Amino acid sequence: MTKKQTAGRDALGDFAPKFAELNDDVLFGEVWSRESKLSARDRSMITCASLMSQGLFPQLEAHMKIARQNGVTKDEMVEIITQLAFYAGWPKAWSAFGIAKKIFDK
């Protein structure tokens, strides 16, 4: 079971309350919680792959931390990044490896 997300409200609750609500309650509360359809672990791998492909590295770092909590291993993350290097771009892979090393070498 995914844990209750409050990042939207914590970061933007006062500034953009509806966006924060959608982030916490719909994206994480409804979509991420549909584990009978797709596990949180698999969702984490897909999300990290998408964020890396787009070069969204601040979000990638946050989601790599979630992926680790959801059971994605260092070896799996290395393999995901290596695979994507050929499709998303070598420089993006280098950036993603820097983030992964920081998160998974703890």
What does this structure look like?
The structure is a single chain. The chain is mainly alpha-helical and 106 residues long. The chain has two domains: 1-37, no CATH class; 39-106, Up-down Bundle (AhpD-like). Helix content is 75%, strand content 0%. The protein contains six helices and no strands. It has helices at 7-12, 17-31, 40-54, 57-69, 74-88, 90-104. It is globular. It starts with 6 loop residues before the first helix and ends with a helix. The mean pLDDT is 95.
Descriptive key words:
106 residues; mainly alpha; AhpD-like; 6 helices
Number of helical segments with 4 or more residues: 6
Order of helices and strands: HHHHHH
Major sheet description: none
- CATH superfamily descriptor of the largest domain: AhpD-like
- The overall pLDDT, averaged over residues, is 95
Give the tally of structural domains.
2
Binned, the helix content reads over 70%
Report low-confidence residues grouped into runs of 5 or more: none
What is the global morphology? globular
Q: Which CATH top level class of the largest domain fits? A: Mainly Alpha
